[in-house]
Amino acid sequence: MSTHYYFSWFNNFFPEKLVHCLHEDIIDRKSLVMISADPSEQINFDDVSEWTWLNQANIIFDKYHFIDYRMQKEEARRFIQNASVIFLCGGYPVLQNDFLTEYELSDVIKNSNAVIIGASAGALNMAAKWLSLNNTDEVATSTIYNGIGFDQFAYESHSQRDFATFVQGYLFPLSEEIDVYAAEQESAVRVKDGKIEIVGPVYLISHSKIQKLVETL
Fold first, then answer.
1. Per DSSP, what are the bridge partners of residue 31?
2. Sign of the dihedral through C-alpha 43, 55, 182, 123
3. What is the DSSP-derived secondary structure letter of residue 120?
4. What is the DSSP code (8-state) at residue 151?
5. How many helices, marked H, and strands, marked E, lie in the chain?
6. Residue 107 φ/ψ, nearest 5 degrees
7. Phi, psi values for residue 13, rounded to 5°
8. Res. 85 pLDDT band, cuts 50 70 90
9. Given CA atoms 108, 110, 116, 121 in this order, what sign does their dihedral have?
10. Where are the alpha helices (DSSP H) in 111-200?
């Protein structure tokens, strides 16, 4: 069973507790594969915040691959199959979800023995389900998406959302169907050997009840 990290967003760098866990879990550092959440945009690897976080934590790999529409599907699948760490980047969760489907990457990722990490949009797409809110001038609509489904919970993480937003209840209908882990910034959820561990402000929403989780890492 591989280890999974669900990150919210870090404005500068990883907290020390998280760095320690990552060093403990990421033993094989032959290859890092990062999957874009804005795959049509030609992003330079050096400009990817998530790569900077790892660099600052002194987690260095022999090879780096950034997957977006510039890469052929077969090559993307091969890099994922051989990856030490697979990192689903932040950005636009719907675009990333569509890309994973179009390139048929979800099963390849799910069958990997790599350490799997997602940040913001990427973390949403790692979970079993997630909620997309569409606000217009007249009406707010929501759509529930299926993620890769490493772990049987839903996840929510957006940089401007916090406890005050979560208690307004937009996640409550989803929480009647599946537990939701809702994360503020500067937080992470680690699932290792089926055990869920927490760094930073994370809330569990279950059957329309919300509770702040105690940090366990």
1. 63
2. positive
3. T
4. S
5. 8, 13
6. -65, -35
7. -155, 170
8. very high
9. positive
10. 121-126, 163-166, 172-175
**Structure-token match 């900077």, residue found:** 52
Per residue, the 3-state secondary structure of 37-92, as one string, reads ECCCCCCCHHHCHHHHHHHHCCCCCCEEEEECCCCCHHHHHHHHHCCCEEEEEEEC
**Overall pTM surpassing 0.85 (yes/no):** yes
CA–CA distances in Å: residue 100 to residues 66, 67, 130, 157, 203: 14, 10, 15, 19, 28
Tokens coding 148: 């890769």
183 half-sphere exposure, CB direction, 13 A CA radius: 31
Q: Helices in the chain by DSSP H: which ranges?
A: 16-25, 49-56, 73-81, 93-102, 106-110, 121-126, 163-166, 172-175
pLDDT digits (tens, 9 = 90+) for 47-72: 778 888 899 999 999 999 999 999 99
State both tokens at 103. Answer: 């390139």
What pLDDT is stored for residue 49 in this prediction?
A: 81
Rounded Cα distance between 123 and 168, Å, is 22
Whether the Cβ atoms of residue 161 and residue 187 lie closer than 8 Å to each other: no
Alpha-carbon distance 115 to 22, whole Å?
9
Strand 140-146: give its sheet, edge to edge. Answer: 140-146, 129-135, 154-157, 180-183, 202-206, 209-212
